[in-house]
Design a protein that fits this description.
single chain, 172 residues, alpha/beta, Alpha/beta knot
Length: 172
């Protein structure tokens, strides 16, 4: 007989150690933002939105994707990337892009790091990437696609950070 275990839960102590921030630069698709909000609640991450957004927070698709978790989300808004940087001057920002050759899995992350993602249809502007090239990261993927869905990409990057902090014994 197979015994089904309860899902692994992150303890309160562990939760305090994995405080990452997700920054969405000018998001366009409400369902993605809703899914990412729900993901952030489950991963104890903050969600930062850099304006402008192409939808309203009252959008039914955002609410549907975020379910009833949206009320528990630590949500912050910034008028520009510079405002985000000023708010967290001591935190590293990693710019997640398909244009980089810096493999996500070759980086060491720490609590407080910020993972920034660009708009779904165009990604982070090249002018921003060029200024911050040493902090760009990419998810390895097949050359059969241009990119992975934004919400899925956020999940991959965020949980790699969590894995490194909670489970990687060599993360010193």
């Amino acid at each position: 007989m197979i015994k089904i275990k309860k899902s692994f839960k992150i303890s309160e102590d562990q939760r305090q150690n994995i405080s990452f921030r997700i920054a969405l630069f000018q998001p366009e698709i409400p369902a993605n933002t809703g899914n990412i909000g729900r993901l952030c609640v489950g991963a104890n991450a903050e969600l930062h939105i850099i304006k402008p957004m192409r939808f309203l927070l009252s959008d039914k698709y955002l609410k549907r994707a975020g379910l009833d978790y949206w009320k528990d989300l630590s949500l912050h808004f910034h008028d520009s990337l510079e405002d985000l940087k000023k708010a967290y001057p001591d935190n590293d920002i990693y710019y997640c892009t398909t244009k980089s050759e810096n493999n996500l899995y070759e980086r060491k992350f720490k609590a407080g790091d910020i993972f920034m993602f660009g708009p779904e249809t165009r990604g982070i502007p090249e002018s921003i990437l060029k200024k911050n090239w040493n902090k760009t990261i990419t998810i390895p993927m097949s050359d059969k696609i241009r990119s992975i869905n934004l919400a899925n990409s956020v999940a991959i990057v965020l949980y790699e950070g969590i894995r490194q902090i909670l489970f990687d014994r060599n993360n010193d």
